Amino acid sequence: MNGSLLFIISGPAGSGKGSVVSEILKRDDRFLCAVSATSRPCLAGEVDGVNYYYLSREQFEEKIRTHGVLEYTEYCGNYYGTPTSEVERAKALGKHLILEIEVDGATQIKRQRPDAVLIMVTPPNAAEQSRRLHSRGRDTEDSIERRLTRAKAELEYLKNYDYLIINEDGRLDKATDDFFAIARAEALRAARRADFAAEYFGEKK
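RE: above sequence
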């Protein structure tokens, strides 16, 4: 694939989007997952630059002021967001960047980076989402109901996304293959190769 592409993957709880991203990274080392920044303290067992980039609240707000984050949100009194430097890090490494973020953050980025590829990963239906959330055994009934309600709001954003991947139970390989099909198609977009004519005739840029 030519150039460094930016992929944003979102999806409701129980969609398996994290599993899809893990499989992508396992199968192809040309892809890199962005590390988010946060103003919350580093917890025991976490590593700066691996789990998050840990910033003070003042440092994070400075990045907001200077456009040092592609997107951000505030949750439970702490900031969370994607540093703009992650895009440059991916370019320097010659890799394509994946952001696994919520729909509101994805919308923020699309406004700044129209070239970003937005992909929604979902279970096949609400019944399957509910089954997955129950099978995890870590959510209360109230929490599951909130997540199912949240899914309705998240799917309202689908019209802003470029692609939909339905992650069926037991078919993680297919969902991952779908991602790679999207990545290949995006790399072939003529709009991404505006310099091809000059290259074709051996002209200098």
